[in-house]
Amino acid sequence: MTLYGEKSPPADDRPTVQVTAVTWPDDGPGPDTVPTGKPEGDPRRPRRVRMLLAAGVTGGVLAAVAGAGAWAYAGDVPRGTSVLGAELGGRSRTDAHRELRAELDRRAATLAAPLGVTVGERTAEINPTDVGLVVDVAATVAAAAEADAHPVSRLVGSRTVDPVVTVDVDRLDTALRKVLGDQARPMTMPAITYQGTTPKVVQPKPGLAFDPQRSADAVRAGWLTGAPVTVPLVESQPATTADELNRLVTELAKPAVAAPVTLRSNKGSVKIPPSAIAKSLRFSADKAGKLTPTVDVKRLRSALGDDLDAIEVPPKDATMTISGGRPKVTEGRPGQQLDTATLGRDLLAVLPKSDGREVTGELKPTPPELTAEKLAGLGIKERVSTFTTRFTGGMASSRSQNIATIAREVDGTLVLPGKTFSLNGHTGERGYAQGYRDAPVILDGKLVPGVGGGTSQFTTTLFNATYYAGLEDVEHKPHSYWFDRYPAVIESTIFWPNLDFKFRNNTQYGLLIDTSYTSSTITVSIWSTKIYDSVKTEYGPRRNITTPKLIHLEPGPTCIPSNGINGFTQDAFRVIKKGGAMVKREKFTWRYDAEPRYVCGPKPS
Length: 605
What we know:
Elements: H1 44-72, E1 81-83, E2 86-87, H2 93-106, H3 108-112, E3 115-119, E4 122-126, E5 134-135, H4 137-145, H5 151-155, E6 159-160, E7 165-166, H6 169-180, E8 191-195, E9 198-202, E10 207-209, H7 212-222, E11 229-231, E12 234-236, H8 242-256, E13 261-265, E14 268-272, H9 274-280, E15 281-285, E16 291-295, H10 297-304, E17 319-323, E18 326-330, E19 335-338, H11 340-350, E20 358-360, E21 363-366, H12 372-376, E22 382-390, H13 398-410, E23 413-415, E24 420-422, H14 423-427, E25 438-443, E26 446-451, H15 455-468, E27 472-475, E28 502-504, E29 511-517, E30 521-528, E31 534-539, E32 543-546, E33 550-553, E34 567-578, E35 581-592, E36 597-600
Parallel strand pairs: 1-6, 3-11, 13-20, 33-36
Antiparallel strand pairs: 1-2, 3-4, 5-7, 8-9, 10-12, 13-14, 15-16, 17-18, 19-21, 22-30, 23-29, 24-28, 25-26, 27-28, 29-30, 31-34, 32-34, 34-35
């Protein structure tokens, strides 16, 4: 088919440049109408010519556009895209990955070179490998492929895509902190405490440190530039400002202790004095330095002490005693105590007030922590060990009285599974107010009168009872000198508050400490469920034996003579058997000094 009748034009699929000049009048031929050879009154031929010409022009344009689009969209990465100077445009992701990897290999020495960093006033170099600095090739190629998906942008222009750099934030932070050194300073947290009933204030101060993520961003951005990287230091301000702190003092801390608060209940009332308020009102700062006031009800109860007895009835735990050679459980009783949750909140609300300083406390039934049912289920059913030591002087001596006093304090103590018993923690200070008397104690290597002398003998007895029960030794210390009333090595002294004896109940059963004494003996037994067939001690020979020196002391009431005892080193092995086989062999070793022979009097001339 031809457009012009007699002769076909040369084949040419290029789009004509006259496209925009063609017009299509609605009626009759115009000056630009193509001659058709038809009568003027026939409109069909011009319309057909117009349609064919438009189709030819459009087809040519589309063919050109299609060719350009095929060129522009060849490959996964838009043409004209480069990374670190490597041309990735027009490539598939696989080829782009290969090309970028080759470029990185060419730059390997540069990438591995130490990176200069400036931190505050200090400069240093860090090894990129040490902090995990790498170019993530896969992520970079993906970013390049998505660099600009707009069709026109893919036809013309060029673009450079930054490489995706990764770093180990934690390792970088560790390396930078070495450079930072003492330039960092922590925030000074705001604080309000009491000295007596006077508020003492610590003003907040800003800290200077790293933000690990910001440090990593700076290093990632600057690594490939070839220039030193400045790592920013961030000043952090406590959340509670100085103005807010001063307002807390003015509006709460000072008025809180200006007058007592009356605590009322349906069983009477109690005055809470300013001293108790000061001990229980706490201003706690969180990690951001935000200061929050609270009332610590436990501290409040401790500060009020026996005053709460006027309105409270404390619960009583169930107890166990040994009667007729068998454990006997006595039921406890519930009590009535203040609802601590509401008390703390309500008290905090009235502390800023100058009048109306009253709170109402709600008494709630409080069950005992240890019921008879729970106690009976702890497996305390038999005596698993017992140990006795002897003393002289009868019960008339102060030393014997001290042994009996501490034995009574410990008798009936229950130690739950997994719990640790501390002798100092259980008895507290052992002084005159607690009924202890002066008796000989070892101080600075010699025997002198001291309050509580003799309690070490009870400690040794208790230690051996727990030792032969197979319980875990947590803390003990043998005496400086060996006394023949104690087993060598397997013994323990005690002194408030520095020397303690502790053991842990490392069984699944509860245990009861039962104590008894006569005028010449102290006995401690452990009641629980027997686990082991036997627990015995095997001794090694004594070695490094030393003899005592003779020392003359000034006569007087503080001088206590002694005959002297040899010093030596010895090993003791605790051998534990179960099911006929040894399950544990523990070594205990101690070095005893030679106790001097003390004589009260001058050297003979």
